[in-house]
Amino acid sequence: MIIKSRLIPDGICLNLFGTYWTRDKSWITDKVINHEKIHTAQQRELLFLPFYLLYLVEWCVKRCFYPSWTEAYYNISFEREAYRYGHDFQYLKRRKHYAWLRYLSDSKA
Fold this sequence. Notes:
The protein is mostly helical. Helices cover 48% and strands 10% of the residues. The termini are far apart.
């Protein structure tokens, strides 16, 4: 489900418990939805709340190593998996549980 909200910044899709929040639905493509479905799979295997906690902690740690918040964001393990396979619409069928763990130590930069 995609929900429009003026509280969400432009160009952002926020996945909260498998519900997608955005300011403008017009830019939400199948690839974006697939990216968010990968996040939903990550959230489910961590029982949702620990996902958000780990996401925040990892972003804070990455922020210490990368000069910008966006570079830190793109290097979060959850994002790296979702961006890598966002275009692959069959990925979720073959995805192994906790696949995001392989991206924790391997830097994209």
